[in-house]
Structures are given as C-alpha cells and as structure tokens.
Amino acid sequence: MKPDPAPANIRISDEDFQKFREFFYRKTGIQFDASKRYFVDKRLVERIEATDSGTFRSYFTLLRFQASSDEVQLLTNLMTVNETYFFREEYQFQCLVDSLLPEIVARKRDQRAIRIWVVPSSSGEEPYSIAIYLLERWPGINHWDVEIVASDIDTRILARAREGLYSIRSVQHLPAKYLQRYFRRQADGYQICDDLRESVEFTRVNVSERGDTRGYRDFDVIFCRNLLIYFDDVSRKTATETFYDALKPGGFVCLGHSESMSRSSSLYKVRKFPEAIVYQRPLETS
Q1: Is residue 204 within 8 Å of residue 151, measured between CB atoms?
Q2: Catalytic site residues?
Q3: Rg of the chain taking only CA atoms, in angstroms
Q4: What is the pLDDT along the chain (286 residues), one digit of tens a residue?
Q5: How would you write 57-99 as a 3-class SS string?
Q6: Which of 26, 58, 175, 241, CA to CA, is 20 to 30 A from 266?
Q7: SS3 (DSSP) at 19
Q8: Is residue 148 helix, strand or coil?
Q9: Helix ranges (DSSP H) in the chain
Q10: pTM higher than 0.85
Q11: Helix (H, G, I), strand (E, B), or coil: what is residue 164?
Q12: Peptide bond into 249 cis (omega under 30)
C-alpha cells in the first residue's frame, strides 16, 4: 500500500526541507538525512494543518519566533522516535549488576545513594527494567539506596513513562514471575506497580543544550543507548562532554551495541567487562 500523499495545497520543497533540517538540528542536535524526508514532511504537514498556518513559510515563522517555544516542543515530540521494550539489550543490565556496581561500591567512602541516569528514557521501559533488575539480581540493593533519574526531550513520552502503561508486545521479554510481581493486568496491556513508578524520577532534558544539563551531576552510571546514532560528530562530541561532566570520577557510560565514543571523545577509558564494553570517566589521581 502506498503512503497517503501530502495535501496538494501544502508543499515542502527541497529548500524548505533544508531550512527545517538546519533549524531542528540547532535546537535538538538531531539531524535528518534525505532518507527521512517522507517522515519529516508528513509531520510538518500535520502541524501546518493543525496550526492553520497554511504554508511551510508561515509555519516556519511560527517555529522560529513563538515566544513560548511550545510549538517547537510539540513538533520535537512528533519527530523523535521512541521504539523500545523491557529488558532490551539485557546483557548491559547484567554488566551493571555483576561488574559495575561491585566496583562502584568497593571504592565508595560514604553512604550517599548510588545514582543512575537513563537518557533518553523513552516511555520508561529502560529505567523500570533497571529497577527490576536491581531488585531481583543485585544483593547490594538491601544495603544501598539507589536513585534512578530518567530524562527525555519528548514531554509527551515522559507523561507516558510516568503513567507506566505498556502493551503486551512491550513486556514480552519479561519473565512471567516479574510480570506477576511488578505489573497489574489492564484491559489491553499492563501497568507497572506504584512502587516502581515512584522509584524513578522523570525529567525533560535536551542533552545538546548545556543550559538543560547543568544541574545533572554526581552520577555513578549513565545509560545512553541508541541516541548518539541520531547525532552528527559535533552533537555527539557535545553529548559525550555533557556525560563526562555529569559523572563522578570513575563513573561509567553504557551505550547501545552499535554505538561508540572512540571517534568522538578521548575523555573516557574503554573498559571491557565479560558482559559488555563500557566507557569510564578516569579516576582522579590526586
């Protein structure tokens, strides 16, 4: 089946697409290549119609000069992809429990909470998976407080994450006993239990915007999986520097299986654990 064409009276020209692509990149650090043209055009037309702008030119003026920036946020929500599920790339959770946390605990000299930052959070599957993994497989959870902060640029998806409602497909890789223990059956899926919903703090952040990330500090572990693949070299470098500042010395960054920091930053030490390769902010020597 062919996709529905854009309305004949609303046309996104090659020049319009290029203008929008540059604008969106400056705002978010996300860059769309030509292969995403249909995806981008379709969403632009949706918003041109919804705002009664009539033309790309009028809508683009609204995007650039609206004082509240509400339309930029709304369009960002539409443009960002949020495809995930519980226990995705589980080997990294195993690495967290078996290799990273024992090392973090061994060098701790205080009783402050262990802090984990998940960005992007998407609809919450990843931070909730980490919470479940710690409860089920890390004995240290009985001795240490753990804070999980989960952030995303998409305010719509953050609302879904806080609500914690998931389809059967989203939870299909969870062991049945975890499903029974941490979820309530709903008419068309599952809702995660209140204790876990309250255990994760969800926040809106743009990792390409320094002003947004200035308050994010003293994390022991950062999970940033399948985000950097949407960035170009400049945005990727900014993000890796942001994570460096957000980590405690000795803290770790876990990326997606197809991502690497080797090209974008020399700040980190590459650590090869039995379960996964991760990136470490070096320990200070003095």
Answers
A1: yes
A2: 43, 152
A3: 21
A4: 444 444 557 889 999 999 999 999 888 878 888 888 888 999 999 999 999 999 999 999 999 998 888 899 888 888 877 678 999 989 999 999 999 999 999 999 888 999 999 999 999 999 999 999 999 999 999 999 999 999 999 999 999 999 999 999 899 999 999 999 999 999 889 999 999 999 999 999 999 888 899 999 999 999 999 888 778 888 888 899 999 999 999 999 999 877 888 776 789 999 999 999 999 999 975 4
A5: HHHHHHHHHCCCCHHHHHHHHHHCCCCCCCCCCCHHHHHHHHH
A6: 26
A7: helix
A8: strand
A9: 14-28, 37-50, 56-65, 70-79, 91-95, 101-107, 125-137, 155-163, 176-182, 194-199, 210-213, 233-246
A10: no
A11: coil
A12: no
Contact 248/220 with Cβ under 8 angstroms?
yes
Q: End-to-end CA distance of the chain: give it in Å, rounded.
A: 64
Contacts of 114 (CB under 8 A, 6+ apart): 101, 104, 105, 108, 144, 145, 146, 147, 220, 221
Spatial separation of the C-alpha atoms in residues 17 and 120, rounded to whole Å: 26
Number of helices and strands in the chain (H, E): 12, 10
Residue 47 to residue 56: CA distance in whole angstroms? 10
Task: For residue 219, give both structure tokens.
Answer: 């994390």
Are 252 and 100 in contact, with CB atoms under 8 Å apart?
yes
Please give the torsion angle defined by the CA atoms of residues 91, 275, 120 and 109, in that order, rounded to the nearest 10 degrees. Answer: 120
What's the CA gap between 2 and 265, in Å, rounded?
43
